[in-house]
Specification:
heterodimer; A: Jelly Rolls; 17-stranded mixed β-sheet; 17 strands; B: Serine Threonine Protein Phosphatase 5, Tetratricopeptide repeat; 24 helices
Chain lengths: 311, 465
């Protein structure tokens, strides 16, 4: 754990300054007081802990808007997604945007089956809206209404609050998590980095954990069968198709031990590594995709280590 | 029986079990979800079929596009790793366990470890096309494209290469480095991978790929633009500026427009420059709300509260539900000595949004500063319901106000000739409640604004507990 992080965050742009701060802290800790090094380092730290802006007229360390109202300074980035502002205002497609668009509080951002939207929150946080999803953006929280979102909460003053159905989760600063809302109203939360927690609860879930949230109850590492609806998302369709074309379709695992694949030459002389220099890039001459003459099998699963093929 | 035969036998057992004992869900509902390799990998791991699970996970890694951070991948595979480490010393299972550990190390991107172990295993099984494939793919992951291609090239001459060369071709083609070089496909692939890394919170990995794209496609502005955004997100605005300067030195095309440039300056805290950049732009495009916000906040940050006030007012009028704009506008009015107008606006907002506790607390705290204790008490009273995040604060403040009123009634002219609360009745240090004796309506100094904001933030933290 970096004990200096709270001290240094927000206002230390350069690694050299971090180094200087670290040096100063270490020197202080070790009670060594070199007359020259310490004040310089401390000054550097102090200088960069001064108010953002550094204007001599500003005089005070006023927190920046985007560090407090992270979702209140949300901008839709050009690309995917459709913005529906509150009231009767007309929709805006991110495809037509030339530059970033400030999102009014209460707006709904939706995505189609094959598009992903990106929304920058504050200055250092990011919201990714997966295909076929909808999220409403308020000044102090997000409300997931359908599908899946991923949030990366940067170095901010306040954490990020995500509401969905009747649950409320908090993503801590310098953390990231993905949220999927099921049709029944439960959430699958995957903590990608840092920590997250249920609002009103002390227990924090850490990076790597997956949680099923229903109301104010959370179960860590739920049974895999509970992930079916999430992983049935339309956004998996393109690569599922790819998997089939590569003859890696596990649903058609029709391995036949008696079958000797065409072209296989058991007992052929082995070419052992290290690879000789100057060999060509050519591999097989087969074309991709969909031109495999062999029966569907799973090359990564049906091969043995010594390369002799099936008996 | 040789070790090789034992391994063959074991692997065949695995193959049969994989064929015959598919995931429960797939069995119950054939066809549905059967294609989702990540799901199947998790099911296999959950059921204790660790090798199958790891193999499926590896396939998911190669082809899938669900962003999962290294921490998530490691968490998914931790039990399997534990099991395989135990099996390493086993004579009959050791090689298989080593293969599985290689795959896990590859999946969680301990690439050097994976490579070291893989080299040892390849020495033992030099004709294994599976190991050759993994080696080639590992070299791709390590960025050694040429060596990867050479290794893939050896596979067709190994015994029983089956689909591996085709899979290798696919991986290369997808990267735009198949038989026919396709620079556009390669660039798109690399951009996709960089964004995926970003989504996986592997910022260093994303940065590295963006840098690679920039060196491979030096005229293409998309990667440096994306990298600028990434650098700002990870609080490295200075590096972003350096990147822009490098670009300007090598190209006539402008990398970023004035507005994003202003955003970088804003991120660096160089607000005077932001004002300089945005003032003419705002005149040209007065409808751009984002531009207006950056300008308003830059003025606010430099203490130009009177100039920031109309900008925040218009932002608040255009987005009436955004508490941030309203709070900033009121802070500007407060700092300019015009808090009465701010109170009216806040009261109107509360009337429209009676359930917004945070803003009600905001109003109550200003009323306290203005010594309008009875009005403040009414606001706090509305917050004292069980379950309200500000209930504790509300009850505390009601008690303070009641004591102040009591003191005023019974002790006026004796203990406190000014008729205001005695220090003893003021809240304890560290409270979110300001000292009622410190009220004035003169224009505030930056330090006052800072202190007021600190109190605001402390109060807002209640919303996130």
């Amino acid at each position: 754990m970096n004990i200096f992080r709270p001290l240094l965050r927000n206002r230390l742009p350069g690694s050299s300054l971090r180094g200087a701060a670290l040096l100063a802290a270490v020197l202080l800790w070790s009670r060594v007081a070199p007359v020259t090094a310490l004040p310089d380092a401390a000054d550097q730290v102090a200088q960069h802990l001064r108010p953002a802006g550094g204007s001599p007229t500003s005089g005070a360390a006023v927190a920046r808007f985007g560090d407090i109202y992270v979702t209140g300074m949300a901008v839709l980035l050009p690309g995917g997604g459709t913005l529906e502002p509150p009231g009767a205002a007309s929709k805006v497609s991110a495809k037509t945007l030339r530059s970033e668009l400030l999102i009014p509080s209460g707006s709904l951002v939706t995505t189609g089956a094959s598009e992903t939207a990106r929304v920058r929150l504050g200055e250092r946080s990011l919201l990714r809206i997966s295909p076929d999803s909808a999220v409403r953006i308020f000044a102090l929280h997000l409300k997931l209404e359908r599908g899946e979102i991923g949030v990366q909460q940067g170095k901010t003053i306040l954490p990020l609050r995500i509401l969905a159905s009747d649950s409320a989760m908090i993503v801590d600063c310098e953390s990231a998590a993905d949220f999927f809302l099921s049709k029944a109203g439960s959430m699958i939360v995957t903590v990608q980095a840092g920590t997250a927690r249920l609002q009103g609860r002390e227990e924090r879930f850490s990076a790597g954990q997956r949680i099923e949230v229903a109301g104010s109850a959370a179960v860590s590492d739920p049974p895999v069968s509970h992930l079916l609806e999430w992983l049935d998302s339309p956004r998996f369709a393109p690569w599922q198709e790819t998997m089939s074309r590569l003859d890696m379709d596990v649903s058609e695992d029709t391995f036949n031990p008696a079958e000797t694949p065409a072209g296989a030459a058991p007992g052929a002389p082995a070419v052992s590594g290290p690879e000789s220099a100057g060999q060509t890039a050519s591999t097989t001459g087969s074309t991709l995709p969909g031109s495999f003459p062999q029966a569907p099998d799973d090359v990564l699963q049906q091969h043995d280590l010594d390369g002799a093929g099936q008996p | 029986m040789t070790v090789n035969r034992i391994i063959k036998y074991l692997l065949l057992c695995i193959m049969f079990s994989a064929t015959g004992a598919g995931p429960v869900a797939a069995k119950n509902d054939p066809g549905k979800h059967a294609q989702n390799v990540y799901f199947q990998a998790l099911q296999a791991l959950e059921s204790g079929s660790f090798l199958k699970g790891v193999q499926l996970y590896y396939r998911f890694l190669l082809i899938g596009d669900l962003p999962l951070s290294k921490e998530v991948r490691a968490h998914d595979l931790v039990k399997a790793m534990g099991q395989f480490k135990k099996e390493l010393a086993d004579k009959t299972r050791g090689d298989k366990a080593a293969l599985a550990i290689i795959l896990i190390d590859r999946i969680i991107e301990r690439l050097d470890k994976a490579d070291k172990r893989l080299n040892a295993l390849r020495e033992k099984f030099p004709s294994s096309v599976l190991l050759a494939f993994i080696k080639g793919e590992l070299m791709l992951a390590l960025g050694d494209q040429n060596l990867a291609v050479r290794i893939f090239g050896t596979m067709s001459r190994l015994p029983s290469p089956r689909g591996f060369p085709a899979l290798a071709d696919y991986l290369l083609e997808r990267r735009g480095q198949g038989k026919r070089s396709d620079p556009a496909a390669r660039r798109n692939f690399l951009m996709r991978i960089a964004y995926r890394r970003w989504d996986e919170t592997d910022f260093a990995g994303a940065k590295k790929i963006f840098r690679n794209i920039m060196s491979e496609f030096p005229k293409d502005p998309e990667a440096p633009r994306a990298l600028v955004d990434l650098l700002i997100q990870i609080d490295k605005a200075d590096e972003a500026v350096q990147l822009i300067d490098e670009w300007q030195g090598s190209s006539t095309e402008q990398l970023i427009a004035p507005l994003p440039l202003a955003r970088i300056r804003y991120s660096q805290g160089r607000f005077a420059e932001v004002i300089e950049l945005l003032t003419p732009l705002q005149k040209a495009d007065p409808q751009d709300m984002y531009l207006r916000l950056l300008l308003a906040e830059s003025r606010f940050q430099t203490g130009q509260y009177a100039a920031a006030a109309p900008l925040y007012e218009s932002l608040s009028e255009a987005d009436r539900k955004n508490q941030g704009f309203l709070q900033r506008w009121i802070a500007c009015l407060d700092a300019s000595g015009n808090i009465t107008e701010g109170v009216s606006r806040l009261e109107a907002y509360i009337q429209e949004n009676p359930n917004d506790s945070a803003m009600r607390v905001e109003l109550a705290s200003i009323l306290m500063r203005l010594e309008k204790y009875d009005d403040a008490r009414a606001q706090y009273y509305a917050l004292k319901e069980v379950g309200n995040p500000y209930r504790g604060l509300a009850l505390q403040q009601i008690a303070v106000i009641d004591k102040v009123n009591y003191d005023r009634l019974f002790n006026a002219g004796t203990a406190n000739p000014d008729g205001v609360a005695s220090p003893a009745s003021a809240p304890e240090a560290g409270s979110a409640f300001p000292d009622p004796t410190s009220i004035d309506q003169k224009p505030k100094q930056a330090e006052d604004v800072e202190n007021i904001q600190k109190e605001q933030i402390e109060r807002m933290k209640e919303l996130f507990k």
